[in-house]
Write a structure and sequence with these properties.
The protein is 78% helix and 0% strand. The protein has 157 residues and is mostly helical. It is rod-shaped, with a radius of gyration of 46 Å.
Length: 157
């Protein structure tokens, strides 16, 4: 199905016809202008009788143009909001990715430090230094009584 000319073209065509009609009224007289207007009226009546839609009303065409412009502006606004939301989402993803990366790096550093300590202890133990340090620590500590374990709950009597 072929669509007809756009609203802008129909509006321009109707304006042009009204301007020509006004010029013929000034230059050639009102009788000739009235004949042109009648000829146009008959042509539109024939088109309507054949089932065609004739869009030559200036007021309706102007309203339609304004409505289209409002819809277009609304769509543009909605699109800008969508773009803004997408940019915020991308930015937020990047920030969370950086934070996760930073946390992973800290965890890796911590695990590396613990691993180094374990290796150092193992090396000291293999060398026999670890036992001597334990003996020194035991000598420095005062005698402590072992703590008694407390029951976690009491049974009601």
């Amino acid at each position: 199905m072929k669509s007809g000319p756009g609203t802008r073209l129909l509006l321009a065509k109707a304006k042009r016809f009204n301007e020509r009609l006004a010029k013929t009224r000034e230059n050639r007289g009102t009788e000739i202008a009235e004949k042109v207007r009648l000829r146009q009226a008959w042509a539109t009546a024939l088109k309507r009788s054949q089932g065609e839609k004739v869009k030559d009303n200036l007021d309706l065409l102007k309203k339609k143009m304004k409505r289209k412009e409002r819809v277009k502006a609304k769509h543009a606004k909605d699109w800008e909001e969508r773009k803004k939301l997408m940019e915020q989402g991308i930015k937020q993803k990047a920030e969370t990715h950086q934070a996760r990366k930073k946390r992973m790096l800290k965890n890796k550093e911590r695990s590396d430090a613990l691993k180094r300590k374990r290796e150092e202890r193992a090396e000291k133990k293999a060398a026999g230094e670890d036992e001597e340090e334990k003996e020194e620590k035991v000598e420095k500590r005062p005698n402590k009584k072992p703590k008694k374990s407390k029951p976690k709950f009491k049974k009601p009597d």
